[in-house]
Write a structure and sequence with these properties.
This protein has two domains: 121 residues, Urease, subunit C, domain 1 (Roll), CATH 2.30.40.10; 259 residues, TIM Barrel (Alpha-Beta Barrel), CATH 3.20.20.140. By secondary structure, the chain is α/β, with parallel strands linked by helices. Helix 4 runs parallel beside helix 5 and helix 9 packs across helix 10. The protein is globular and about 70 Å long. It contains ten helices and 19 strands. Strands 3, 4, 5, 6, 7, 17, 18 and 19 form an eight-stranded mixed β-sheet that branches. The protein has a four-stranded parallel β-sheet with strand order 13-14-15-16. The chain starts with 16 loop residues before the first strand and ends with a strand. The N terminus is likely disordered.
Length: 430
């Protein structure tokens, strides 16, 4: 839907039901009434599972607890049969347009093809149980409109537009001896200087961006930038942060090293993406500035497993090895400082199939309760949307019925079995 922080509480959820038949073209925005009974409810925060039922009216949770099903008239009903019910999952580092690991290819591909690939990636994420995603290097008003009008089945969609990168930074896909043939600006845009950055931020917010993404350190798949060196000057980052904050938005920064994290946070960045090389000093700085962290552990594991086979450059494989080895420790360091830890995947190209596996990898560090909080209520805090990531009266009717109890069998979190049900705005979508 392309929410902004100024408008998200006011955006209605559309409803188009005629005699129980969904109107063609209203797939994404249709809501439905639904009763889920006999569930063990994880509300997104509390460790205790609550026995009871949930009634959804017009796509929002209307009642929780003991509900007499005989009073619900013709409302459709699902018997959870004692299985665990959670809020819909949230992926806070998703790439709808990230159909290629090779940035040169993705940035020089016709936008019509990119949009269609985005559709398939969003639909697949919804089927896995992700009812909300934050696209932090891509997305645009056209895709958001298509989702809002129900042209495609999609999670709730937050986007930043193309990430901002300095010349020679992580978002600059050019090889040292090769130039791009096309304009790019699909997932990344190279913008240098305080004034041009102010214009770029204002333009993204004009087009409905939820937040602003910048590249604040080197990256794995980019070919010419060392991974540890901070990117953008202090003045440039402050200008981006000032413009975003003035509009009630915030800045998310790609940053790996302690130097780049401190550089970003002290100049106004709120959300640190990845943070694999985090140390105690950088974590204390994040805590002091109330910054949040969105780890993306699964992408490095998958690039280690599949990268060579799918043609990743040797320099990228080398950089991936460095961040892969440190990623889990970074989460432990952040947790000790009380930093809010979300959940993201960052899977590009053919690696997107491993989105649920991200829960398995992060579970190895956090355990069941904390990873459940990260993928639901904590990610909702990052989005600044109290209606997502929670099971409470008035919240979105976005739910996942797991095929078992994750506190007894954690693998049900990342296993897309036949027993799993995904509910979006009161409607069963998987």
């Amino acid at each position: 839907m392309g929410f902004t922080l100024a408008t998200w509480p006011l955006i209605p959820v559309g409803c188009a039901l005629i005699c129980g038949i969904l109107l063609e073209g209203d797939v994404g925005k249709v809501t439905q009434d639904l009763l889920v009974k006999n569930a063990l409810i994880f509300d997104g925060v509390n460790p205790e599972l609550r026995e009871g039922s949930i009634r959804i009216l017009n796509g929002k949770i209307e009642a929780i607890g003991k509900i007499d099903s005989s009073t619900n008239g013709d409302i459709p009903m699902i018997d959870a049969k004692g299985r665990v019910l959670t809020p819909g999952f949230i992926d806070c580092h998703f790439h709808a347009y990230g159909f290629e690991l090779d940035m040169m290819k993705s940035e020089s591909t016709p936008r019509s093809y990119v949009a269609l690939k985005g559709r398939t990636r969003l639909e697949a994420a919804l089927q896995r149980g992700f009812t909300t995603v934050r696209d932090v290097a891509g997305g645009d008003a056209g895709l958001a409109r298509a989702i809002d009008e129900g042209l495609i089945a999609s999670p709730n969609y937050y986007y930043t537009g193309p990430a901002l990168s300095q010349t020679g930074g992580h978002g600059d896909p050019r090889h040292a001896v090769l130039e791009m043939c096309c304009e790019g600006k699909i997932g990344v845009e190279v913008v240098d200087g305080v004034d041009p950055l102010r214009v770029a931020v204002r333009d993204r917010l004009r087009k409905g961006a939820h937040a602003i993404k910048i590249m604040a350190s080197g990256g794995v798949v980019s070919l010419t930038d060392p991974i540890r060196i901070p990117q953008y000057s202090a003045e440039e980052i402050r200008a981006v942060a000032e413009e975003a904050t003035r509009r009630g938005s915030y800045v998310a920064a790609h940053a790996y090293s302690p130097e780049s994290i401190i550089h970003a946070v002290t100049n106004g960045v709120r959300s640190i993406e990845h943070a694999n090389l985090l140390n105690d000093e950088a974590a204390k700085c994040m805590a002091q500035h109330n910054a949040v962290m969105v780890p993306t552990l699964v992408t490095y594991l998958m690039m280690a497993e599949k990268g060579a086979a799918i043609g990743m450059a040797p320099v990228s494989l080398q950089k991936n090895h460095e961040v892969l080895a440190a990623g889990k420790s970074a989460i432990e360091i952040a947790a000790k400082q009380g930093i809010l830890i979300g959940f993201g995947t960052d899977l590009m190209g053919d690696l997107e199939f491993a989105q649920l596996r991200g829960l398995e990898v992060q579970h190895e560090v956090q355990g069941t309760l904390e990873v459940l909080r990260s993928v639901t209520s904590r990610n909702a805090q990052i989005l600044k949307n109290p209606l997502a990531g929670t099971i409470s009266e008035g919240a979105y009717g976005d739910l996942v019925i797991l095929d078992g109890n994750p506190f007894d069998k954690p693998s049900v979190l990342w296993t897309q079995s036949e027993g799993r049900k995904v509910i979006k705005a009161g409607r069963v979508v998987a």
